[in-house]
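Here is one chain, start to finish.
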Amino acid sequence: MDPLTTRTTSCPSPSPENDPLRAKGQTHMTVRRTLKDTHLGRPDTYNNINTHWWDLSQVYGADEAKHATLRAFVDGKMKVADDGLLPVGPDGLDIAGYNDNWWAGLSVLHNIWVKEHNLVCDMFKASYPDWNDTQLFDHARLVTTALNAKVHTVEWTPALLQDQILKVAMQTNWNGLAPKWLRFIPNIFSQHIAEVFYGIMGGKPDFAGVPFAHSEEFISIYRFHSLLRDNITIRNHVDNSETGKTYDIAQYTFRGAQDVVRGNKFSDVVYTFGTDNPGALILGNYPEAMTHLDKPGAPSILDMGAIDVLRDRERGVPRYNEFRRLFSLIPAKTMDDISDDKAAVAALRKIYGEDVESVDLLSGTLAESPRATGFAFSNTQFQVFILAASRRLMTDRFFTTDYTAAVYTQEGLDWIEKSDFRAVIGRTIPELNASAHSVDNAFKPWVVPS
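Its structure:
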């Protein structure tokens, strides 16, 4: 059992008669309680078995012991199986830095980043032939991790929040507004002006007076299970034809991820993810299969929708209305103020009655509308998201004071500068290079062959 979640608690009341868990013969759901640290004079914090830093520890592991299980110890590279994909452990899951919540989409991303790491090793090996395995690994990890952060900042975020101002803002976070020649002029600006001109990367860290930590609120607004598709139908990357292979959530999660990733051409699987749209982050679109998830090792069948709400309550995250007040947003006076969708309002009333103050954060943010044009999630969620987008860069020395050629090498900085996720896909899966470059952002649905 996970040492960080050794105590258990049950849902406070039996499952409703129409709960999907009843069909599994289960009247109560048992989940492990998160262990917390109590601090004098400041709020409790909650432990995690993985790091909160933007360090790609889900790929590399969070400690040296985990690293040792993942490294090939040859030329700095990560282990891959004979077919070029991640090795599989005795539990049927890919051997990765963190694979507790495994599904085919995560397997795809982990495989891509491990392939990218190994290609960066090749680049460094050619540039620095005298480097040993550890030097190659450490520098490739730095570059790959920073590239992942760049991809998330300037590509994934603008794809989810498709607004030109937001796109410019995220590019500014990374690169700044000033032309490159201005970077040779000594920085005489205040920190906040310098961040706008030069970007956060390579600048001074800004801790805003407190040690860095991602807030519970950030975790809460990042509950994106509704993005999962009910079914994945694999298509051929050459002509977009269906291959006849379709997988539902029960089939593409946990051990089933191997059936998807290794039961098809890897290029076809990645192409399928590249051309498909995700689910919408709206009320009433939570994947039905996630409400009765049979997770290996769990003490019971899990209703992930209920757990998402339960975790917020367990950790003292404010309900929707109070959350908005604390972010200086106008609270809802009635259920009708939350959404202009009558069906969503009716669903809220069915659960919460007219008590608008009792609406949980997740329920309120999924229901919330209208939304800013092009935004995949609500304005309330955006308030937290945009704060964290800068904080997770400006509080990390590897993205500020140590983002230098002395640490990364100039070759490493150039690799990051010249790369986007389209380039990563084109390098790691060359047959998908044209498909990935059919759009200006690899996280937008790719253009399919005519």
